[in-house]
Amino acid sequence: MSLLQAYSSLSSSSSRATVSHTLYSIVGAPSIDPASCKALIQLILDDLRNVIIDESPSRLTRDNALSALAAVKGLGKIPHGAQVLASVPNLKCLMTLALNLETTPDASNEALKCVANTLLLSEPARTRILSQEIDGGNICVDLLQKSTAPENTFLSSRILFLCTASPHQSASFIESIVETKRTANGTIIDVIAFKLDDLIVSMQAGVKMSRDAMTDLLKLTFNLLVHYPKLAPSEVQSPALAASPDDQKVMGDFWNSRLDGILPPLVRAFQAIPLSSPNPLTSPLTHIIHSLITIPVDASSRTIWFGTRPSSHPTTPPQPSSPEPTTSALAGSCNQSTPKEPKNRQLERAISCVISAGRRSFSRSSRSASPPAADCASRAYELLDTTLAHFLPNDIDPDDPAVRDLCKADGDTSLDEVVCPLVLLITRFCLGDDDAKTRLRQWLVPENLDRTNPLEKRADLLGRCLRLLASVYHSRLKDATGEMLYAMCDSNATTLAGYFGYGNVAGFLFHKGVVSAPPVSAASSGPPTTASGLPINPITGTVEHPSETIDMTDEEKEREAEKLFVLFDRLEKTGALPPSQNPYRKAFQEGKMG
After folding, report:
1. Is residue 257 part of a domain?
2. Number of other CB atoms surrounding residue 31 within 10 Å
3. Max mean pLDDT range (228-237, 359-368, 423-432, 552-561)
4. In degrees to the nearest 10, what's the CA dihedral of 467, 468, 472, 474?
5. Residue 213: which of 260, 146, 156 has the closest Cα?
6. Co-location of 433 and 564 in the same domain
7. Residue 218 lies in a domain
8. Which residue range forms the structural domain that includes residue 411?
9. What predicted TM-score, i.e. pTM, was given to this entire model?
Protein backbone atom coordinates (compact mmCIF):
# COMPACT_ATOMS: atom_id res chain seq x y z
CA MET A 1 0.00 0.00 0.00
CA SER A 2 1.35 3.48 -0.91
CA LEU A 3 1.88 6.16 1.74
CA LEU A 4 -0.96 8.18 0.26
CA GLN A 5 -3.31 5.22 0.42
CA ALA A 6 -2.18 4.35 3.96
CA TYR A 7 -2.87 7.85 5.21
CA SER A 8 -6.14 8.24 3.27
CA SER A 9 -7.46 5.04 4.85
CA LEU A 10 -7.22 6.57 8.31
CA SER A 11 -10.30 8.06 9.97
CA SER A 12 -11.20 9.90 13.15
CA SER A 13 -11.86 6.52 14.75
CA SER A 14 -8.43 5.06 13.89
CA SER A 15 -6.34 4.08 16.88
CA ARG A 16 -3.61 6.47 18.04
CA ALA A 17 -1.02 3.76 17.46
CA THR A 18 -2.10 3.29 13.83
CA VAL A 19 -2.04 7.05 13.15
CA SER A 20 1.37 7.44 14.78
CA HIS A 21 2.82 4.49 12.86
CA THR A 22 1.55 5.89 9.55
CA LEU A 23 3.00 9.35 10.23
CA TYR A 24 6.37 7.92 11.24
CA SER A 25 6.45 5.86 8.04
CA ILE A 26 5.94 9.07 6.03
CA VAL A 27 8.73 10.87 7.91
CA GLY A 28 11.21 8.10 7.23
CA ALA A 29 10.06 7.22 3.71
CA PRO A 30 12.32 7.40 0.65
CA SER A 31 11.40 9.62 -2.30
CA ILE A 32 7.76 9.71 -3.29
CA ASP A 33 6.27 10.48 -6.70
CA PRO A 34 5.30 14.16 -7.24
CA ALA A 35 1.54 13.62 -7.52
CA SER A 36 1.35 11.57 -4.33
CA CYS A 37 3.64 14.01 -2.54
CA LYS A 38 1.38 16.97 -3.35
CA ALA A 39 -1.81 15.15 -2.42
CA LEU A 40 -0.37 13.81 0.83
CA ILE A 41 0.88 17.21 1.97
CA GLN A 42 -2.50 18.78 1.34
CA LEU A 43 -4.34 16.02 3.17
CA ILE A 44 -2.15 16.32 6.26
CA LEU A 45 -2.36 20.12 6.30
CA ASP A 46 -6.15 20.03 5.93
CA ASP A 47 -6.37 17.61 8.85
CA LEU A 48 -4.10 19.82 10.97
CA ARG A 49 -6.23 22.83 10.14
CA ASN A 50 -9.37 20.96 11.14
CA VAL A 51 -8.10 19.72 14.49
CA ILE A 52 -5.92 22.67 15.62
CA ILE A 53 -7.58 25.71 14.09
CA ASP A 54 -11.21 24.76 13.41
CA GLU A 55 -11.44 22.14 16.20
CA SER A 56 -13.46 19.85 13.94
CA PRO A 57 -13.22 16.05 13.43
CA SER A 58 -10.03 14.87 11.76
CA ARG A 59 -7.78 11.89 11.22
CA LEU A 60 -5.38 13.60 13.62
CA THR A 61 -5.51 14.80 17.20
CA ARG A 62 -3.59 17.61 18.86
CA ASP A 63 -1.18 14.99 20.19
CA ASN A 64 -0.29 14.04 16.59
CA ALA A 65 0.61 17.62 15.58
CA LEU A 66 4.39 17.25 16.02
CA SER A 67 4.59 14.01 13.99
CA ALA A 68 2.24 15.37 11.32
CA LEU A 69 4.26 18.57 10.90
CA ALA A 70 7.49 16.53 10.78
CA ALA A 71 5.93 14.57 7.89
CA VAL A 72 4.95 17.82 6.14
CA LYS A 73 8.48 19.19 6.65
CA GLY A 74 10.04 16.09 5.07
CA LEU A 75 7.69 16.15 2.09
CA GLY A 76 8.14 19.93 1.74
CA LYS A 77 11.88 19.60 1.13
CA ILE A 78 11.01 18.13 -2.27
CA PRO A 79 10.46 20.92 -4.84
CA HIS A 80 7.02 19.57 -5.74
CA GLY A 81 6.05 19.57 -2.09
CA ALA A 82 7.36 23.12 -1.60
CA GLN A 83 5.07 24.29 -4.41
CA VAL A 84 2.08 23.07 -2.41
CA LEU A 85 3.23 24.72 0.81
CA ALA A 86 3.98 27.99 -1.02
CA SER A 87 0.30 28.74 -1.66
CA VAL A 88 -1.24 31.58 0.35
CA PRO A 89 -3.78 29.33 2.18
CA ASN A 90 -1.12 26.82 3.18
CA LEU A 91 1.40 29.44 4.31
CA LYS A 92 -1.33 31.07 6.36
CA CYS A 93 -2.23 27.68 7.82
CA LEU A 94 1.38 27.00 8.86
CA MET A 95 1.80 30.43 10.47
CA THR A 96 -1.50 29.99 12.34
CA LEU A 97 -0.42 26.55 13.51
CA ALA A 98 2.85 28.00 14.80
CA LEU A 99 0.89 30.50 16.89
CA ASN A 100 -1.80 28.09 18.08
CA LEU A 101 0.77 25.51 19.14
CA GLU A 102 2.96 27.89 21.18
CA THR A 103 2.13 25.90 24.31
CA THR A 104 3.75 22.93 22.53
CA PRO A 105 7.09 24.52 21.51
CA ASP A 106 8.42 21.55 19.52
CA ALA A 107 5.31 21.43 17.33
CA SER A 108 5.28 25.21 16.90
CA ASN A 109 8.94 25.15 15.84
CA GLU A 110 8.20 22.35 13.38
CA ALA A 111 5.59 24.54 11.69
CA LEU A 112 8.13 27.37 11.43
CA LYS A 113 10.68 24.98 9.93
CA CYS A 114 8.13 24.10 7.24
CA VAL A 115 7.74 27.80 6.47
CA ALA A 116 11.50 28.45 6.42
CA ASN A 117 12.16 25.55 4.06
CA THR A 118 9.36 26.70 1.77
CA LEU A 119 10.74 30.25 1.58
CA LEU A 120 14.17 28.83 0.80
CA LEU A 121 12.89 26.71 -2.09
CA SER A 122 10.22 29.08 -3.43
CA GLU A 123 10.97 32.76 -4.07
CA PRO A 124 7.30 33.66 -4.72
CA ALA A 125 6.51 32.42 -1.21
CA ARG A 126 8.75 35.18 0.23
CA THR A 127 6.43 37.81 -1.17
CA ARG A 128 3.22 35.96 -0.35
CA ILE A 129 4.06 35.54 3.31
CA LEU A 130 4.34 39.33 3.66
CA SER A 131 0.88 39.85 2.19
CA GLN A 132 -1.83 41.41 4.33
CA GLU A 133 -3.75 38.14 4.32
CA ILE A 134 -0.93 36.24 6.03
CA ASP A 135 1.11 39.02 7.71
CA GLY A 136 3.84 36.46 8.31
CA GLY A 137 6.63 39.03 8.57
CA ASN A 138 5.07 40.88 11.48
CA ILE A 139 4.17 37.60 13.15
CA CYS A 140 7.83 36.56 13.00
CA VAL A 141 9.00 39.90 14.41
CA ASP A 142 6.70 39.29 17.37
CA LEU A 143 7.98 35.71 17.70
CA LEU A 144 11.57 36.97 17.57
CA GLN A 145 10.89 39.47 20.32
CA LYS A 146 9.25 36.83 22.53
CA SER A 147 11.84 34.11 21.83
CA THR A 148 13.55 32.73 24.91
CA ALA A 149 15.56 29.89 23.35
CA PRO A 150 18.15 30.01 20.54
CA GLU A 151 16.06 27.70 18.33
CA ASN A 152 13.11 30.13 18.46
CA THR A 153 15.44 33.02 17.61
CA PHE A 154 17.00 31.01 14.80
CA LEU A 155 13.70 30.13 13.12
CA SER A 156 12.20 33.63 13.36
CA SER A 157 15.45 35.17 12.09
CA ARG A 158 15.74 32.67 9.23
CA ILE A 159 12.23 33.47 7.98
CA LEU A 160 12.79 37.24 8.31
CA PHE A 161 16.17 36.96 6.57
CA LEU A 162 14.60 35.18 3.61
CA CYS A 163 11.70 37.67 3.53
CA THR A 164 14.05 40.67 3.36
CA ALA A 165 16.57 39.25 0.88
CA SER A 166 15.12 41.30 -1.98
CA PRO A 167 14.42 44.98 -1.27
CA HIS A 168 12.22 45.25 -4.36
CA GLN A 169 9.83 42.64 -2.99
CA SER A 170 9.95 43.62 0.68
CA ALA A 171 10.59 47.39 0.62
CA SER A 172 7.44 48.42 2.48
CA PHE A 173 7.92 45.69 5.09
CA ILE A 174 11.56 46.70 5.74
CA GLU A 175 10.56 50.36 6.12
CA SER A 176 7.70 49.43 8.42
CA ILE A 177 9.65 47.31 10.90
CA VAL A 178 12.57 49.77 11.06
CA GLU A 179 10.38 52.83 11.57
CA THR A 180 7.48 51.54 13.67
CA LYS A 181 7.73 51.07 17.42
CA ARG A 182 5.80 47.89 17.97
CA THR A 183 6.18 47.54 21.74
CA ALA A 184 8.07 49.00 24.64
CA ASN A 185 11.16 47.30 23.20
CA GLY A 186 11.07 49.61 20.19
CA THR A 187 11.68 48.82 16.52
CA ILE A 188 13.24 45.74 14.96
CA ILE A 189 16.68 47.32 15.47
CA ASP A 190 16.10 47.43 19.23
CA VAL A 191 14.78 43.86 19.23
CA ILE A 192 17.87 42.65 17.33
CA ALA A 193 20.17 44.54 19.70
CA PHE A 194 18.67 42.80 22.74
CA LYS A 195 18.81 39.39 21.07
CA LEU A 196 22.46 39.85 20.05
CA ASP A 197 23.43 40.54 23.66
CA ASP A 198 21.46 37.50 24.82
CA LEU A 199 23.13 35.28 22.23
CA ILE A 200 26.63 36.45 23.18
CA VAL A 201 26.01 35.03 26.66
CA SER A 202 24.49 31.85 25.21
CA MET A 203 27.46 31.30 22.90
CA GLN A 204 29.94 31.83 25.69
CA ALA A 205 28.04 29.23 27.72
CA GLY A 206 27.98 26.79 24.77
CA VAL A 207 24.18 26.68 24.56
CA LYS A 208 22.97 24.48 21.70
CA MET A 209 22.07 26.37 18.49
CA SER A 210 23.17 29.75 19.88
CA ARG A 211 25.83 30.06 17.15
CA ASP A 212 23.29 29.24 14.42
CA ALA A 213 20.76 31.64 15.92
CA MET A 214 23.27 34.48 15.93
CA THR A 215 24.33 33.70 12.36
CA ASP A 216 20.80 34.03 10.98
CA LEU A 217 20.00 37.03 13.18
CA LEU A 218 23.08 38.71 11.68
CA LYS A 219 21.99 37.81 8.15
CA LEU A 220 18.73 39.63 8.86
CA THR A 221 20.69 42.53 10.34
CA PHE A 222 22.86 42.77 7.22
CA ASN A 223 19.78 42.89 4.97
CA LEU A 224 18.32 45.77 6.99
CA LEU A 225 21.61 47.71 7.11
CA VAL A 226 22.11 47.36 3.37
CA HIS A 227 18.55 47.90 2.13
CA TYR A 228 16.93 50.41 4.50
CA PRO A 229 19.29 53.35 3.77
CA LYS A 230 18.43 52.96 0.07
CA LEU A 231 14.69 52.92 0.75
CA ALA A 232 14.39 55.87 3.16
CA PRO A 233 15.88 59.38 2.97
CA SER A 234 19.45 58.77 4.14
CA GLU A 235 22.73 60.59 4.38
CA VAL A 236 25.21 59.97 1.58
CA GLN A 237 28.58 58.81 2.88
CA SER A 238 30.39 60.07 -0.20
CA PRO A 239 29.33 62.99 -2.46
CA ALA A 240 30.45 60.96 -5.49
CA LEU A 241 27.64 58.49 -4.81
CA ALA A 242 24.80 61.03 -4.68
CA ALA A 243 23.85 60.61 -8.34
CA SER A 244 24.18 56.81 -8.44
CA PRO A 245 21.12 54.90 -9.69
CA ASP A 246 19.35 52.94 -6.96
CA ASP A 247 20.23 49.60 -8.50
CA GLN A 248 23.95 50.44 -8.28
CA LYS A 249 23.95 51.50 -4.65
CA VAL A 250 25.44 48.84 -2.40
CA MET A 251 26.44 48.48 1.22
CA GLY A 252 28.10 51.48 2.76
CA ASP A 253 26.84 54.05 0.25
CA PHE A 254 24.27 55.59 2.60
CA TRP A 255 23.40 55.65 6.29
CA ASN A 256 20.24 56.42 8.25
CA SER A 257 20.25 57.42 11.91
CA ARG A 258 17.37 55.03 12.66
CA LEU A 259 19.98 52.25 12.45
CA ASP A 260 22.41 53.80 14.96
CA GLY A 261 21.36 51.53 17.83
CA ILE A 262 22.76 48.44 16.13
CA LEU A 263 26.44 49.46 16.43
CA PRO A 264 27.03 48.91 20.20
CA PRO A 265 25.73 45.30 20.28
CA LEU A 266 27.58 44.48 17.05
CA VAL A 267 30.80 45.78 18.58
CA ARG A 268 30.17 43.79 21.75
CA ALA A 269 29.62 40.66 19.66
CA PHE A 270 32.75 41.38 17.59
CA GLN A 271 34.79 41.53 20.77
CA ALA A 272 33.19 38.78 22.84
CA ILE A 273 32.05 35.78 20.81
CA PRO A 274 34.23 32.65 21.09
CA LEU A 275 36.56 32.17 18.13
CA SER A 276 36.92 29.00 16.11
CA SER A 277 40.32 27.40 15.52
CA PRO A 278 42.61 27.39 13.59
CA ASN A 279 40.74 29.82 11.29
CA PRO A 280 38.85 32.40 13.36
CA LEU A 281 36.99 33.87 10.37
CA THR A 282 33.95 31.61 10.43
CA SER A 283 30.28 32.34 11.07
CA PRO A 284 28.92 34.16 12.94
CA LEU A 285 32.05 36.35 13.17
CA THR A 286 32.13 36.77 9.39
CA HIS A 287 28.53 37.98 9.45
CA ILE A 288 29.36 40.47 12.21
CA ILE A 289 32.13 41.87 10.01
CA HIS A 290 29.78 42.08 7.00
CA SER A 291 27.39 44.19 9.08
CA LEU A 292 30.11 46.38 10.59
CA ILE A 293 31.52 47.44 7.23
CA THR A 294 28.17 49.04 6.36
CA ILE A 295 28.37 51.40 9.38
CA PRO A 296 30.22 54.76 9.34
CA VAL A 297 33.43 55.22 11.33
CA ASP A 298 33.79 58.83 12.44
CA ALA A 299 34.50 61.12 15.37
CA SER A 300 31.06 60.86 16.97
CA SER A 301 31.11 57.04 17.02
CA ARG A 302 34.82 56.51 17.73
CA THR A 303 34.30 55.78 21.44
CA ILE A 304 31.96 52.92 20.54
CA TRP A 305 34.42 51.57 18.00
CA PHE A 306 37.68 52.02 19.89
CA GLY A 307 36.85 52.72 23.53
CA THR A 308 38.71 55.44 25.44
CA ARG A 309 42.25 55.44 24.10
CA PRO A 310 45.31 56.88 25.88
CA SER A 311 47.07 59.79 24.24
CA SER A 312 50.17 57.71 23.50
CA HIS A 313 49.92 55.00 20.86
CA PRO A 314 50.94 51.44 21.79
CA THR A 315 53.70 50.13 19.56
CA THR A 316 53.34 46.47 20.52
CA PRO A 317 50.94 44.59 18.23
CA PRO A 318 47.96 42.92 19.97
CA GLN A 319 48.60 39.31 20.89
CA PRO A 320 46.21 36.71 19.44
CA SER A 321 43.76 35.27 21.93
CA SER A 322 43.14 31.54 22.24
CA PRO A 323 40.37 30.57 19.83
CA GLU A 324 37.77 27.99 20.75
CA PRO A 325 36.53 25.15 18.56
CA THR A 326 33.48 25.84 16.45
CA THR A 327 30.25 24.48 17.86
CA SER A 328 28.49 21.83 15.86
CA ALA A 329 26.12 22.86 13.10
CA LEU A 330 22.41 22.79 13.77
CA ALA A 331 20.80 19.41 13.70
CA GLY A 332 17.22 18.53 12.89
CA SER A 333 16.27 22.02 11.79
CA CYS A 334 15.23 23.31 8.41
CA ASN A 335 17.23 22.88 5.22
CA GLN A 336 20.65 24.37 5.95
CA SER A 337 21.60 25.71 2.53
CA THR A 338 20.83 29.37 2.03
CA PRO A 339 20.51 31.56 -1.05
CA LYS A 340 23.77 33.01 -2.30
CA GLU A 341 24.39 36.34 -0.66
CA PRO A 342 25.93 39.07 -2.86
CA LYS A 343 29.70 38.77 -2.54
CA ASN A 344 31.97 39.56 -5.47
CA ARG A 345 30.13 42.54 -6.94
CA GLN A 346 29.33 44.10 -3.59
CA LEU A 347 32.82 43.63 -2.17
CA GLU A 348 34.48 45.13 -5.25
CA ARG A 349 32.10 48.10 -5.19
CA ALA A 350 32.40 48.46 -1.43
CA ILE A 351 36.20 48.68 -1.63
CA SER A 352 35.80 51.56 -4.06
CA CYS A 353 33.16 53.21 -1.84
CA VAL A 354 35.33 52.96 1.25
CA ILE A 355 38.24 54.77 -0.37
CA SER A 356 36.11 57.79 -1.21
CA ALA A 357 33.92 57.73 1.89
CA GLY A 358 33.66 61.08 3.64
CA ARG A 359 33.14 61.93 7.27
CA ARG A 360 29.62 62.11 8.60
CA SER A 361 27.84 62.54 11.90
CA PHE A 362 26.68 59.55 13.91
CA SER A 363 24.10 59.86 16.65
CA ARG A 364 24.66 57.38 19.45
CA SER A 365 21.65 55.58 20.80
CA SER A 366 20.73 55.34 24.44
CA ARG A 367 22.04 51.74 24.47
CA SER A 368 25.59 53.02 23.84
CA ALA A 369 25.80 54.98 27.10
CA SER A 370 28.48 52.56 28.33
CA PRO A 371 30.81 52.05 25.35
CA PRO A 372 32.88 48.88 25.22
CA ALA A 373 36.35 49.30 26.66
CA ALA A 374 37.89 46.98 24.08
CA ASP A 375 39.39 48.31 20.86
CA CYS A 376 37.96 47.14 17.51
CA ALA A 377 41.16 48.16 15.71
CA SER A 378 43.19 45.86 17.97
CA ARG A 379 40.69 43.03 17.57
CA ALA A 380 40.62 43.36 13.79
CA TYR A 381 44.43 43.43 13.57
CA GLU A 382 44.65 40.33 15.75
CA LEU A 383 42.08 38.51 13.58
CA LEU A 384 43.87 39.42 10.36
CA ASP A 385 47.22 38.29 11.79
CA THR A 386 45.80 34.95 13.00
CA THR A 387 43.83 34.29 9.81
CA LEU A 388 46.68 34.99 7.38
CA ALA A 389 49.08 32.99 9.56
CA HIS A 390 46.71 30.04 9.14
CA PHE A 391 46.22 30.32 5.39
CA LEU A 392 49.74 31.61 4.55
CA PRO A 393 52.04 29.81 7.01
CA ASN A 394 55.68 30.88 7.28
CA ASP A 395 56.72 32.75 4.11
CA ILE A 396 54.68 30.77 1.57
CA ASP A 397 53.74 32.46 -1.71
CA PRO A 398 49.99 33.27 -1.67
CA ASP A 399 49.68 31.78 -5.17
CA ASP A 400 51.06 28.43 -4.04
CA PRO A 401 48.45 25.70 -4.81
CA ALA A 402 48.70 24.56 -1.19
CA VAL A 403 46.97 27.80 -0.14
CA ARG A 404 43.98 27.10 -2.38
CA ASP A 405 43.86 23.51 -1.13
CA LEU A 406 43.75 24.76 2.46
CA CYS A 407 40.89 27.12 1.62
CA LYS A 408 38.91 24.24 0.11
CA ALA A 409 39.66 22.07 3.14
CA ASP A 410 38.21 24.78 5.40
CA GLY A 411 35.13 25.07 3.21
CA ASP A 412 34.45 25.42 -0.50
CA THR A 413 35.54 29.06 -0.63
CA SER A 414 38.46 31.30 -1.56
CA LEU A 415 40.88 33.49 0.34
CA ASP A 416 39.27 36.50 -1.35
CA GLU A 417 35.88 35.72 0.18
CA VAL A 418 37.24 34.85 3.62
CA VAL A 419 39.61 37.75 4.25
CA CYS A 420 38.45 40.69 2.07
CA PRO A 421 35.66 41.88 4.42
CA LEU A 422 38.05 42.04 7.39
CA VAL A 423 40.65 43.93 5.35
CA LEU A 424 37.91 46.31 4.22
CA LEU A 425 36.86 46.89 7.85
CA ILE A 426 40.46 47.79 8.81
CA THR A 427 40.58 50.15 5.82
CA ARG A 428 37.45 51.89 7.11
CA PHE A 429 39.11 52.29 10.51
CA CYS A 430 42.14 53.94 8.88
CA LEU A 431 40.01 56.30 6.80
CA GLY A 432 37.59 57.17 9.57
CA ASP A 433 39.85 57.66 12.60
CA ASP A 434 43.38 59.09 12.66
CA ASP A 435 44.25 57.52 16.00
CA ALA A 436 43.23 54.05 14.82
CA LYS A 437 45.17 54.56 11.60
CA THR A 438 48.34 55.51 13.48
CA ARG A 439 48.11 52.56 15.85
CA LEU A 440 47.47 50.07 13.04
CA ARG A 441 50.44 51.39 11.07
CA GLN A 442 52.73 51.26 14.10
CA TRP A 443 51.72 47.67 14.78
CA LEU A 444 52.42 46.66 11.18
CA VAL A 445 55.64 48.67 10.65
CA PRO A 446 57.00 49.69 14.09
CA GLU A 447 59.86 52.14 14.30
CA ASN A 448 62.21 49.40 15.47
CA LEU A 449 61.32 47.10 12.57
CA ASP A 450 64.22 44.91 11.46
CA ARG A 451 64.93 46.12 7.94
CA THR A 452 68.11 44.16 7.35
CA ASN A 453 66.28 41.46 5.35
CA PRO A 454 63.70 41.77 2.52
CA LEU A 455 60.36 42.89 3.96
CA GLU A 456 58.36 40.74 1.55
CA LYS A 457 60.13 37.61 2.81
CA ARG A 458 59.14 38.09 6.44
CA ALA A 459 57.06 35.32 8.06
CA ASP A 460 54.72 37.78 9.76
CA LEU A 461 51.70 39.91 8.88
CA LEU A 462 53.83 42.55 7.15
CA GLY A 463 55.49 40.00 4.90
CA ARG A 464 52.18 38.29 4.10
CA CYS A 465 50.53 41.59 3.16
CA LEU A 466 53.41 42.53 0.87
CA ARG A 467 53.39 39.10 -0.79
CA LEU A 468 49.66 39.48 -1.38
CA LEU A 469 50.37 42.67 -3.33
CA ALA A 470 52.10 40.52 -5.96
CA SER A 471 49.42 37.81 -5.99
CA VAL A 472 47.84 36.82 -9.28
CA TYR A 473 45.27 34.31 -8.03
CA HIS A 474 43.79 36.33 -5.14
CA SER A 475 43.07 39.47 -7.15
CA ARG A 476 40.38 40.99 -4.92
CA LEU A 477 42.35 40.43 -1.72
CA LYS A 478 45.41 41.86 -3.47
CA ASP A 479 43.53 45.08 -4.29
CA ALA A 480 41.90 45.27 -0.84
CA THR A 481 45.26 44.81 0.90
CA GLY A 482 46.80 47.54 -1.23
CA GLU A 483 44.01 49.94 -0.31
CA MET A 484 44.40 49.05 3.38
CA LEU A 485 48.15 49.82 3.34
CA TYR A 486 47.51 52.98 1.30
CA ALA A 487 44.93 54.16 3.87
CA MET A 488 47.39 53.39 6.71
CA CYS A 489 49.86 55.70 4.97
CA ASP A 490 47.52 58.72 4.81
CA SER A 491 46.50 57.80 1.24
CA ASN A 492 49.86 59.19 0.14
CA ALA A 493 51.95 57.37 -2.47
CA THR A 494 55.24 58.79 -1.19
CA THR A 495 54.49 57.73 2.38
CA LEU A 496 53.45 54.27 1.19
CA ALA A 497 56.68 53.79 -0.74
CA GLY A 498 58.66 55.14 2.21
CA TYR A 499 57.30 52.56 4.63
CA PHE A 500 57.24 49.50 2.39
CA GLY A 501 59.71 50.22 -0.41
CA TYR A 502 58.64 51.25 -3.90
CA GLY A 503 59.47 47.84 -5.32
CA ASN A 504 56.84 46.21 -3.10
CA VAL A 505 54.04 48.68 -3.84
CA ALA A 506 54.90 49.63 -7.43
CA GLY A 507 52.22 47.38 -8.95
CA PHE A 508 49.51 48.77 -6.68
CA LEU A 509 50.55 52.38 -7.36
CA PHE A 510 50.71 51.73 -11.10
CA HIS A 511 47.05 50.68 -11.08
CA LYS A 512 46.24 53.87 -9.16
CA GLY A 513 47.90 55.92 -11.89
CA VAL A 514 51.31 56.43 -10.25
CA VAL A 515 53.58 55.08 -12.99
CA SER A 516 56.94 56.05 -11.53
CA ALA A 517 58.50 56.19 -8.10
CA PRO A 518 56.97 59.10 -6.16
CA PRO A 519 59.42 61.84 -5.17
CA VAL A 520 60.77 61.84 -1.64
CA SER A 521 59.15 64.71 0.23
CA ALA A 522 60.15 66.32 3.50
CA ALA A 523 56.47 66.38 4.41
CA SER A 524 56.22 62.63 3.97
CA SER A 525 55.93 60.59 7.16
CA GLY A 526 57.59 57.58 5.59
CA PRO A 527 60.77 56.57 7.44
CA PRO A 528 63.92 57.74 5.54
CA THR A 529 66.06 56.04 8.15
CA THR A 530 65.71 53.28 10.73
CA ALA A 531 65.34 54.01 14.45
CA SER A 532 69.12 53.60 14.75
CA GLY A 533 69.75 56.13 11.97
CA LEU A 534 70.64 53.78 9.13
CA PRO A 535 69.44 54.92 5.68
CA ILE A 536 66.57 52.98 4.08
CA ASN A 537 66.71 51.97 0.43
CA PRO A 538 63.65 53.61 -1.19
CA ILE A 539 63.17 50.70 -3.60
CA THR A 540 63.43 47.73 -1.24
CA GLY A 541 62.47 49.33 2.07
CA THR A 542 65.47 47.66 3.70
CA VAL A 543 68.65 49.07 5.19
CA GLU A 544 70.91 50.60 2.57
CA HIS A 545 74.52 49.85 3.37
CA PRO A 546 77.06 52.36 2.02
CA SER A 547 78.87 50.99 -0.99
CA GLU A 548 82.55 50.37 -0.59
CA THR A 549 84.98 51.48 -3.30
CA ILE A 550 86.46 48.09 -3.94
CA ASP A 551 86.89 46.15 -7.11
CA MET A 552 84.36 43.40 -7.81
CA THR A 553 85.19 40.03 -9.20
CA ASP A 554 83.32 38.75 -12.24
CA GLU A 555 81.40 36.36 -9.99
CA GLU A 556 80.30 39.23 -7.71
CA LYS A 557 79.23 41.33 -10.67
CA GLU A 558 77.20 38.41 -11.95
CA ARG A 559 75.43 38.08 -8.59
CA GLU A 560 74.59 41.78 -8.52
CA ALA A 561 73.30 41.59 -12.08
CA GLU A 562 71.12 38.68 -11.10
CA LYS A 563 69.62 40.72 -8.22
CA LEU A 564 68.78 43.53 -10.63
CA PHE A 565 67.27 41.05 -13.05
CA VAL A 566 65.00 39.66 -10.30
CA LEU A 567 63.95 43.19 -9.28
CA PHE A 568 63.06 44.27 -12.83
CA ASP A 569 61.28 40.96 -13.40
CA ARG A 570 59.15 41.54 -10.29
CA LEU A 571 58.31 45.09 -11.37
CA GLU A 572 57.23 43.75 -14.77
CA LYS A 573 55.07 40.99 -13.26
CA THR A 574 53.26 43.40 -10.94
CA GLY A 575 52.50 45.71 -13.86
CA ALA A 576 54.66 48.58 -12.61
CA LEU A 577 57.06 48.29 -15.55
CA PRO A 578 55.92 47.67 -19.15
CA PRO A 579 57.88 44.85 -20.83
CA SER A 580 59.15 47.29 -23.43
CA GLN A 581 60.87 49.32 -20.68
CA ASN A 582 62.58 46.41 -18.96
CA PRO A 583 66.31 46.97 -19.73
CA TYR A 584 67.13 43.29 -19.35
CA ARG A 585 64.38 42.21 -21.74
CA LYS A 586 65.52 44.86 -24.24
CA ALA A 587 69.10 43.69 -23.94
CA PHE A 588 68.08 40.09 -24.64
CA GLN A 589 65.98 41.14 -27.63
CA GLU A 590 68.81 43.26 -29.05
CA GLY A 591 71.29 40.41 -28.63
CA LYS A 592 73.43 42.24 -26.12
CA MET A 593 73.08 39.47 -23.54
CA GLY A 594 73.64 35.79 -24.11
Report:
1. no
2. 7
3. 423-432
4. 150
5. 156
6. no
7. no
8. 275-280+297-323+343-488
9. 0.82
